[in-house]
Amino acid sequence: DARVTQTPRHKVTEMGQEVTMRCQPILGHNTVFWYRQTMMQGLELLAYFRNRAPLDDSGMPKDRFSAEMPDATLATLKIQPSEPRDSAVYFCASGLVARYGYTFGSGTRLTVV
Amino acid sequence: KQEVTQIPAALSVPEGENLVLNCSFTDSAIYNLQWFRQDPGKGLTSLLLIQSSQREQTSGRLNASLDKSSGRSTLYIAASQPGDSATYLCAVSFRLTQGGSEKLVFGKGTKLTVNP
Description:
With 113 residues, chain A is an all-beta fold.
């Protein structure tokens, strides 16, 4: 089965450090979403790419978060500097076009101490 | 603003019972609606995808319906089993006016417990 691969699975870091999370979308998929999941807020949309171009990153704190797709096989989400309130599970999802639904990766569990 | 609401937030039922989970959304301009399952500490597994032109989809003991005009979807689980215990999430792909883009918005989920 084709899958979305996220690395690392777990990350513990100290406040102020840079964190980079990576996502390998399913080959051929042209749409990538980044979400953050917390107990309080549920799944929050952070960024959305189509054909590698950012279409919506309005949900992302711009001062510390950045999302990129350097090529079609890699999406990255970077936090610099990290803060304890960034502790959450970050999910990446990919899909082909709007009609066909999305496949999620297993997530990166981030803990900032 | 595009919003998705799921009720109830939690549900506990005895094994064998048929049950319905509800999802409502605020805008009828959608591409599709997708139901996911999430086990504790795990990722999201897609259960059913209903296109905006469809009324329902079935997979095994699961049946999902869509009423786009009223902004509602239901997930029906027949003959529930303890293995069905998980959080069920509804996600709506809203059609945005700018450039054919979309916004995939999730409800907060229904936590289901099926007791043996």
